[in-house]
Amino acid sequence: MRVVVVGCGVAGAAAARAALASGGRCSVLVLEKRRYAAYHPCSLIDAIAGDVPLSALVEGTPGAAGLEVRTATLVEEVDVGGRRLTARDLRTGGRVEVEYDALVLATGSKPHVPRGLRVEDSSGVFTLKTVEDAERILSACKHGSAVVVGGGPVGVEVAHALRRRGLRVTLLEALPRLLPGRLDAELSRLVEDFLRAEGVELALGRAAVEVRGDLGDVAVTDSGGATFRAGFVVLATGFKPDAALARDAGLELGSLGGVRVDDRMRASGEAVYAAGDVAEVRNAVTGKPMLALSASVASITGRVAGANAAGGDEAFRGAVRSWIVSLGGLRVGAVGLTEGEAAREGLDPMAATVTVQERPPFYPGAGWVTVKLVAEAGEGRLIGVQAAGRGGVDGLLNVASLAVLRGATVRDLLHFEHAYAPSLSDLHHPLHAAAEAVLRRMAHARRQGAEPAA
Amino acid sequence: MRVVVVGCGVAGAAAARAALASGGRCSVLVLEKRRYAAYHPCSLIDAIAGDVPLSALVEGTPGAAGLEVRTATLVEEVDVGGRRLTARDLRTGGRVEVEYDALVLATGSKPHVPRGLRVEDSSGVFTLKTVEDAERILSACKHGSAVVVGGGPVGVEVAHALRRRGLRVTLLEALPRLLPGRLDAELSRLVEDFLRAEGVELALGRAAVEVRGDLGDVAVTDSGGATFRAGFVVLATGFKPDAALARDAGLELGSLGGVRVDDRMRASGEAVYAAGDVAEVRNAVTGKPMLALSASVASITGRVAGANAAGGDEAFRGAVRSWIVSLGGLRVGAVGLTEGEAAREGLDPMAATVTVQERPPFYPGAGWVTVKLVAEAGEGRLIGVQAAGRGGVDGLLNVASLAVLRGATVRDLLHFEHAYAPSLSDLHHPLHAAAEAVLRRMAHARRQGAEPAA
Fold it and tell me: Which of A8, A191, B30, B386 could potentially form a cystine with B5 if both were Cys, beta carbons 3.0 to 4.6 Å apart?
């Protein structure tokens, strides 16, 4: 059988690999509109910071028995009923007709600029998604200053990376704190303090409404009429599924704009799967559809879609939305829901935040890590973990990720037996300390017969 | 009620904390024979290496409402039926009578020297358990060379630490490879290669039978008659439960020499609990009793024992034996069973070892990590993970620890969504790569209708 994959990003590549590995005899054709097959999108930020060369991020075309990857090939139309699609060869302009037995749509996401933000000129305004975007930003750095609009993970990373390059950087966020959709306030504050100490100017509670001017002198105006001028502007205002092809093919989209799929990553059309940023996936905690927009989830859903497209039977178990941002001296990330999100979901959260030593204080360079656990009152199901510190945060979040995915309780975390060496960690693991704090709060609430004040 | 804890090591301190935190009104008395309450046993090695000052490892007496810690107090006899014990004040020589409602024995472990090893003189022969042991070893370093007997975790750490101090070091191990009870051969080899490259001389397959001579010139003779001379000798031949007090009190010991307990950490006598190194705990994988001899397990079992002693109802869920050794440029550790152990347990193991990049190769300093997964054939229950690399090994083992404890399968690991930033990890996590390798092997075995050749 022939599996066709549209898009050679993380999800598409994972789907192709899984289809080839499925054991059934199948050939896989990947169609990618870029002139190169694959690149490392999450490393663009490190290229901007100067840690890795941008040229290293472009990958060669993957090769394997049974695999064909066609670059510079834009899929323009899918005939779901006829199991065929039409593409354009961007080098020759020629039309390409392709038949498939199963199709995986992995068309990814694209930068999203909110409607309320008017961009009058564009020569000094960038988003960050492709290698070319990073090239443009790098070449604009000579102008010495930048305004970054959007205080989510990408905005925070871009602002920090440009600052490390020596630019004067202002970071605008419409809400009154950084990473508002990703962290609760006490964790946001750690990021804000860190960025300020690194010399990034924060303009919080400032909704950008207009960008005007040309490269070298761009002005961002906020809803209060204040103006922020800089050599260029990076819009880090989020991403949205690149679902036009799916929509035009008649596939159902969800309310968040992504392709609607079931847990097999099957879209609404026969023999069509979707994976990665373009798909709406099930949130493992709430059970509701979400846009994960994450490489980790793209990799997992791509694998599931590819295996199923090749005749397998794999089920996606839901996304916990693990993420981490590494800012040199501060690593921050989370898994699952924040306390605020949990409350909005009606989940009756019980949370506690602890700041504990990373390892015994007599070790040189021993730092601190702040961990917030969010659990459901009652049984104490773990529904979210946020963490910030200088090191080890990724390992901690990875344990939390598995715990949340498997429905562990806060009490279960007390039984977590970590690999202990005092030069690496404290005997009392930060997850133990945070779990104990939540359990104390739960016990207190039980004694009070009511939820305690926060 | 009054809870008395014998021993202020990791398990005793955890028991005291848990009893105090139990919510019931209880007072806790901890009796410790040392002249100081607590110290950091796992940091002794770092003091020998010169990374931390030895003086920092001695802790002050913990203070808390309801807690009393008496140091220099040796418990000599327990009257289980009468719920009282007799101790000696080592400062005054006076006798101390103590009554209790519940007793937690956390008397720890002591160095074990096998019967087949004859030690003729002792001024140049050391073990490593206490701060005083480390002081003696440090002061012997001026003799410039050492023989370390025993290639387990402590032997490997001591040999490496002494080498870092500039000594000429020979490490003797009776079996033909290092860490034979802890790693399978392919992982042992990585440790052997590393230590050799660091300048440690390895004498494998050499069973020490005699140590003779005085500090400055000690000779170790092996079973083949070869002699290894050095300024001093460190016997790292293991530890055994310090269970004399429990045995004399009439409590049941298990076949491994530890106090027999149930999953509440209850010993055979009424109102007596045991925790930490002195207790035999249930292996979470095999269900059989084991000696964990690990600070992580001591902390968990101490907490369970203390909570139950204070009237709670906590159950220990079994030890997965997480451990890690950090040798600077190499971290190595494991969780659960090795392939060899699994086979000896009759568990029909299916294993695979992968060596993958720690992060994308274009990041400076990106290294490699070797991971071996051991699963049960059939359902693929994860029963062991071994890992070695330069960084991140502890985080990986911690995920594995939770997975093994919770009975996860190899397939479950493919759904593990890690917190991904390319400066910290590869998108394809080493556990994903290793899980895929095991699954390929399992699929191959199914197709063959038989186990594949290794």
Answer: B30
Asked if A398 reaches chain B (Cβ–Cβ under 8 Å), the answer is: yes
Question: A310 — contact with chain B (CB < 8 Å)?
Answer: no
**Cα separation of A302 and B410, whole Å?**
18
How many of the other CB atoms lie within 10 Å of CB of B115? 6
B317 interaction partners in chain A (CB closer than 8 Å)? 415
Average pLDDT over all residues of chain B: 95
Note whether B53 contacts A395, CB cutoff 8 Å: no
Q: B232 and B127, same structural domain?
A: yes
Q: Are residues A46 and A28 in the same domain?
A: yes
ipTM summary value: 0.95
First-to-last alpha carbon distance for chain B, in angstroms, is 58
CA pair distance B19, B311, nearest whole angstrom? 8
| Dihedral pair phi/psi, residue B47, rounded to 5° | -70, -40
Q: What is the pLDDT of residues A356-382, one digit of tens each?
A: 998 899 998 888 999 999 999 999 999
DSSP one-letter string for A178-214: SSTTTS-HHHHHHHHHHHHHTTPEEEET--EEEEEEE
**B135 and B75 assigned to the same domain:** no
**Would B454 be classed as within a structural domain?**
no
Per-residue pLDDT tens over the stretch B3-52 = 999 999 999 999 999 999 987 789 999 999 999 999 999 999 999 999 99
Specify whether A201 is located in the same domain as A246. no
Type and span of the H or E element at A176: none
Show residues of chain B in contact with A414, CB under 8 Å. Answer: 300, 303
Query: What residues in A contact B442, CB-CB < 8 Å?
Result: none
Chain A hits for B360, CB-CB cut-off 8 Å, are: 40, 43, 52
CATH, residue B220: 3.50.50.60
Using the Cβ of A313 and the Cβ atoms of chain B, whether some distance falls under 8 Å is answered with no
Say which of A295, A419, A427 has its CB closest to residue B323.
A419
Instruction: Give residues with Cβ within 8 angstroms of B192, minimum separation 6.
Output: B177, B178, B202, B204
Q: Which domain holds residue B38?
A: 2-110+240-309
Mean of pLDDT values over B215-229: 97
Domain end among A191, A214, A237: A237
Rounded to the nearest angstrom, the gap between the alpha carbon of residue B291 and the centroid of all alpha carbons in its chain is: 9
B157 and B257 in one domain? no
Query: Looking at the structure, do residues B261 and B244 belong to the same domain, yes or no?
Result: yes
State the CB neighbour count (10 A cutoff) for residue B63: 9
DSSP percent split of chain B into helix, strand, coil, nearest 5: 30, 30, 40
What pLDDT score does B62 carry?
Answer: 83
Answer whether B58 touches A (CB < 8 Å): no
Q: Would you tell me which residues 402-441 of chain B have a C-beta closer than 8 angstroms to some C-beta of chain A? A: 402-403, 405-406, 408, 412, 414-425, 427-428, 432, 436, 440
What is the C-alpha separation between A291 and A282, in angstroms, rounded?
Answer: 9
Measured between beta carbons, which residues in chain B are less than 8 angstroms from residue A55?
A: none
Smallest CA–CA distance, residue B324 to chain A, in Å, is 5
CA B417/CA B401 separation, integer angstroms? 16
Whether A405 contacts A285, CB under 8 Å: no
